[in-house]
Amino acid sequence: MKLSEFFLPLIKEVPSEAKIKSHQLMLRSGMIRQSTSGIYSWLPYGFKILKKIEKIVREEQDRAGAQELLMPTIQSSDIWKESGRYDGYGEEMLRIVDRQKRELLYGPTNEELITQIFRDNVKSYKSLPLMLYHIQWKFRDEIRPRFGVMRCREFLMKDTYSFDATEDDAKNSYKKMFLAYLKTFEKIGLKAIPMEAETGPIGGDLSHEFIILADTGESQIYIDKNVLDIKSEDFNYNKTDLDNLLKKYNQYYSATDDKHKSEIFEKKVSKSNQLVTKGIEVGHIFYFGQKYSNPMRALVNTPDGKNINVYMGSYGIGVSRLVAAVIEAKYNDKYMKWPNSITPFHVAIISLGKENDEIQKKSFEIYDFIKKNGFDVIIDDTNDSPSSKFKNFDLLGIPFQIIVGSKLKANEYEFKEIGADAIILDKSKILSKLKEIYNFDKKI
RNA sequence: CGGGGCAUAGCGCAGCCUGGUAGCGCAUCUGGUUUGGGACCAGAGGGUCGCAAGUUCAAAUCUUGCUGCCCCGACCA
Predict the structure, then answer these.
(1) In the complex, which nucleotide's C1' lies nearest to the CA atom of residue A422?
(2) Chain B positions with any atom < 7 A from a protein CB
(3) What is the largest CA-CA distance in chain A?
(4) pLDDT tens digits, residue range A159-176?
(5) pLDDT tens, A30-76?
(6) To bridge A241 with a disulfide, which of A208, A235, A382, A441 should be the other Cys (CB 3.0-4.6 Å)?
(7) Predicted ipTM?
(8) What is the C-alpha to C-alpha distance for residues A414 and A419, in angstroms, rounded to an integer?
(9) What is the model's pTM?
(10) Hey, what's the torsion of the CAs at A181, A92, A154, A11, to 10 degrees?
(11) What would the DSSP string read from start to end of A151-194?
C-alpha cells in the first residue's frame, strides 16, 4: 500500500471529546470516526486491525470445535417473549416497529435466536455436543456511551452457544471455551485473567469474566500473581487437561471489585504475591443449563427414549472492544506498538527521498521485494518532511520500520523496531529478519 | 434518568458580556524553495454562525423553545 493512495485521515491535535488514550489514538490515527453517540464507522486502518482480531478469534473457535454461522442483527420479538426476556431485558434493548407494525429488535445477544434454530433442527442426543458461533454486530442502548469503542452502543461481538445432553457434558463445553479464550487473548498478545462473575441478564449459575491487565482499565482487580504464570499452551481440549486448567485457576485468588473480600485476600495470598491493578473486561462466559431450553422447549431425545431440555451455555468476546483494549494495554505514553499477530501492516517503509530521486527508487525496490514475498507493507512515498513522516508512523504503531535515507550505502537499509534503536541490514537480511519475526513459514 | 457544560470553515478555537461587512491557528489547493524528528515564502478556496420562533432599522451576539454532542454518577462484551 502506498501512503499517498491510502485513505488515512490523521489528526495532529488531540480531539477534545476523547478522554482515554485508546480513543484519542484511534481518532488521531484515522481508525474510527463517530457517526452518532456510541456509534462508529471503521475507517480502513482501524478496519484492518478489527479484521485481524476477528480472524484470530475465529481460528481459536474453530480449533475448539465450534462451527461458524451468521445470524441477523434484527430479530423478531416473539422469541424474546417466549423466553421471558422481552420485558426483562429493559431499555438496553433497541426495539423497532416495522411498517406492518411488527415488533422487531436489534439483537443485543442471540440466546433466543440460536435456541430457536437449534430446536427446529436438532432432535437427538446423537447430534450433541454442538457448539455454534457467529461474529456479528450487536446493539445495546447504553445509558451513557463513552470512551470510544470501549463502551459504545453498536459493537462487534463473537458469541458462541453450546448444546449438550447432560450437565456434565455442558460443563465440559464451558471449559473448552474457557481454554479457547485464554489461547485467543494470548495470541493477540494480551494476558487475560478469568474471574468468577455475576451472571447478569444472561442468567445461569456459572460464569467467568476475562479481564486483561491495563492500568487504565475500568475494573479494579485483585489477584494472586501466580495466576499470571498459568500458560494456556500447556493445555489441550481433552477432558483431563480442561479439568486441570480450571482446578489450577481455582487454586489462586482473583476477584473484581464487587466480589473482592479483603480478609480472604490477605489471608490466602502472601504480601509479595498480592497484585491490585486495573483491567478491561473483554470476554464473558456463562453456563446456564436449561434457562432458555425450558421456556422455549428446545428438546432432545436421550438414549433411553426420553425428551429432555438441552443444556446450554453462551460465550462472548467483544471483538471491537478488543481493538481499544489492546491500545490501552500496549500504549505506554511514548509509543504505540501493535502486537505482531494483529498489526495492520507487517512493516512500514519510510522513504526520506523525494519524488523520483534515487532514495525513492531504492525505497520502492525494497517495497516490491518484501511485498512479493507475501508481507503486508505500507510505504510513505509522500513529500512530507522527514520529521512529520516519523511522527506519523509513531502514531500508527506499525511495529517495524524500514527507513531509507541518504546516509546508507547502496544495498543497505535501516531496520527499526518501534521503541528500539535502528540497525543497518542489507536487502536479503531484511527479508529473513521479517520471516523470523512473523514466523512466516508457520503462517501466523 | 439526575447534575454540569458545549454547539461559529475539515479539526482546534476566538468573537457574544456592551447587537452594526465572520476571524485566528492547523489542514486543503496553486506556484516555488526545503528534506534524518510535526519545514519555509507567496497566493487561493472553503461558513444559511446546530434548528425554529421572537425582540430590533439591524441578531453569531439578546429572549424562548427544540435538537445534537461531551463530562460526572447508577448498568454492561
Answers:
(1) B36
(2) 1-2, 11-13, 25-27, 34-39, 68-77
(3) 80
(4) 999 999 999 999 999 999
(5) 999 988 889 999 999 999 999 999 999 999 999 999 999 999 999 99
(6) A235
(7) 0.91
(8) 14
(9) 0.95
(10) -110
(11) B-SEEEEEEEEEEESSHHHHHHHHHHHHHHHHHHHHHTT--EEE
